[in-house]
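Cross-posted from the bioinformatics board.
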Amino acid sequence: MNLERVPNEEKLSLCRKYYLGGFAFLPFLWLVNVVWFFKEAFVKPAYDEQPQIKTYVKRSALGLLFWIAVLTTWITIFQHLRGQWGEVSDYLSFTIPLGVE
Amino acid sequence: MTLAVFFGCAFIAFGPAFALFIFTIAKDPLRVIILIAGAFFWLLSLLLSSLVWFIAVKASNAEDTSLQRGLLIFGVIFSVLLQEVFRYAYYRILRKANEGLAAISDDDSSTISVQQMAYVAGLGFGIMSGAFSMINILSDSLGPGTVGIFGDSQYYFITSAFMTLALTLLHTFWGVVFFEGCEKSRWWVIGVVVTLHLVVSCLSLLNPLYSGSLPPVYVIMVLMAIWAFFSAGGSLSSITQLCSRRMSDVNSS
Amino acid sequence: MGPGFAKWIITVAFCWLIQIASGNSVEQKIYVELNNTVPCVRLLNATHQMGCQSSISGNTGVLHMLETDSDLDIILRTGPHAPYMVLMDAGFFNSSIMLRMKNSTRIAGVAVVIPNSGPLEGFSPHNTCPNQHTGVYSDSYGPRLADCNGTIWNRLGNGLSFEDFKFPIFSLKDDNQTGVIRKCVSDHNMGVNGSTPAFPLCAMQLFSHMHAVTSTATCMRRNDIQNNYSLNPETVCDPLGDYNVWAPLRPINSTEKGHKANESVVVAATRLDGRTFFWDIATGAEGTVAGFVTLLAASQALKLTARQAPPPRNILFAFFQGEAFDYIGSSRMVYDMENNNFLIDLENVHSVLEIGQVGLRRGSELWLHTDPVSRRNDTSVNTEVEKLLKNMTSVAAALSLSLAEPNATQPLPPSSFQRFLRSRQIPGVVLADHQSAFNNRYYESVYDNAAYLNVTYPSDLTPEEQLVFVTDTAKALAEVATLVARSLYLQAGGEDSQLDNITADPNIVTQLLYGFLIQSNNSYFRSLTNPEDKSLLESQAPQYYVGVPITANTIKRSTRMVQYLLANYIGNPTSLNQSKCQDPSGMPGESKELYSYLWVRGANGSEPSPFCVRSTVRRTHAISPAFELKQYDSQTYSTWTESRWKLIRARIFLVASHELEMLTLGVGLAVLLLSLFVTYFVSTKADLIFAPAQESTGTAY
């Protein structure tokens, strides 16, 4: 969808939908929101709905950062300690690599 | 570590073709089409000759080494002649298509001269034949081993890459000269091209003396380059003109 | 152009692609594949992983021949081409060198050239106390005898089979291919006058990446997870196991399992398997073959007398599989007996006579090993053992064999009988050629082969002449077999007067030894097996590593051969035809509950005259009860598993110097940049160079 051709109210509603959708453990929606609406929120000349879009984009970015931090930490810990955890990590793994502890 | 050999050989074999492609072909869709169609025609010729080769080998006695050697020589000559036949066929088709292309073209800049067509078609032939002669070798150059356990030269990969480079450029030059011969009905030109192609291919029968076949091929390549230069409209005077211009540029600045 | 033509084009193109793919001559110029190699693979037990493995893409290293101690120094410390692939003769394959390599990061792998005969001082990669933790002696049963405290059975054991190497180790036969490797090394890797050799260097790549890790508990858990949750389950390890072969002398009805009233059975036991450091080579001449050949010959000797003057007790011939790995076969049979899952239970077992290693006697000596703990604790057991010993000694006296008992406090050697004792105090004897430590200097090693057992033939004999040539070993083992057969007969309550009719035939023993140690594809074995079973016989010595079943129904060749032979020896030919042989139900006098039926080729000559043999021989699973009970960390039962792998492969080739590789890359970059520059320059000046005098603009813009 080309945002250029969408009226401002609809932009706001779209941005809100993506923002709310992200709370359903869907951080990628926040990522899309940030990338897609960044120009609308911070670059375009001001219009009525812009402050609200700005808030949504900021909050989406915050949520996204939080997710990135959590996932990176978890992946690092898991990959490092998989071998030591033994049984637990086997049950946590979707595919078990061959020949690796 | 053998990744270095892989990239080195790939750059040697396909570097010039790559440079020619991005600076002279890629911007013009018509040239891209002609290039790819040229590559396709070369593939067709290879398909036919390999079919004949396949049947000949299956039908012959695999134990008889002199017969197999003879078949190999026959296969090379047959394949070269077939490639040249396809080059001629491609010339005829391009000739026909060019009128049509000119007619439908609404933009004068996209029309293409016969020399340009010849060059692009020749490069198409060259790229495809280069790819086919090099791709297996490239995949094996990834290692971990290198050639030589049976006493072969350890420079096998790099000589093969240079051979491919020469072959690609030779096809381009042959394309230019061949099309000009066709255009002006100078049949001796076509004869010379076919003969040289035969000579170059038969030099590969000298293998495994790879470095032995490389110098003559490069001599032929240089001669062909000069010929192609002149037949494409280049002249000594244009070069001197260019040089003097540069000189005057330098002086004036 | 119809669809037919398109189809034709596709077919042709396809054939042509296959041609390209299969005929890659460049690869043939680079690599020499080594086909006659045997890897060391990863085995796991309840707590450890052991064996060897490569990385997933194979280990590559410059070959270095280990010939002197200075070579070792080059490999481990000073050499410039680390990591090294070490090529060594078997003389260097000992624990001190291998453990130094194990702790080094400069080793890519090891290739050992194995000669036909071992080092004089002996070599055993097994540990000093075989099956240490799964025998009968423990803290609760003869604590002072536990862990080989009294007797070190395998003094030469260096424990290499129980080490976990992080690099692959392959064995090579001393043949043409090894010659090719040696030539490659001496041509390329030997510097002139001790200087560093110049590139290109000869290198080797070994693939043996193992899928299982840590322990049986881990790998079996992963198997279960994969089977339950994964879309394409990938098994990572399999329990070692195969089949036990056994046969009661008198038929016992197999429909009812568990205790049989009025049945008293003497068990004659031996083991069917061995192992070595390397995977699936285990010729086990002294460790395995001598024992079961003796028992086979004894069963044959007993047959006639047992029919004419049947002894009051029954005799059960039992050949246990997987005994080298913590008594898989015998622990399974005892487990089945305890759970009423076998023809008889332990109460039916009157006594046990086990045949251990009997092929390397010193003179006429044989030793009768008994269990001091049960004899001391239980007077009735002691009385029975005394009786058994007396019987055997009296039999031996007539045979010019001298039997002796070791020190009364010495424990039993590693033996299947220990697994019976774990469950019940049963009188029994283990017959062996050693007093305390094994006579076998090559216990569970590749050198325990025909030559070590002195099964050798004059050089001018054809294979068929070798088959019937009676070796001294065969004569000696026939004596032991006679002793065993007569002792069994007495032990089963038979009359003394019949003993002279029981004699093992050296001609049979020699053919058995030939078949089990030289090649199983010989006229004798052919005549006693099913001609349609093509994969059974092979033109080399069978291997006795128990291994894992390839499919659910595969049975080891050696197991099937022993089954056929035993059936022929104690069974009877019948007049059933081939189809009735498979299903004889309804025929008068035949019963599948009492007997099993095997179709054999017959006729020890060129013309086959096949017939159906009726015997009491059966097979039962020899898979450790630990896997039945899913106790993968069991301390009681064998928990051995073998890892799976995708690829076992070895090849040699040359590697180029770093300088040449960098030179190639540099030239490549130069060519690329130069052509980019030149093309750019020419294409911008094209209209100047290619003058419009000739109507067009030429090659470029």
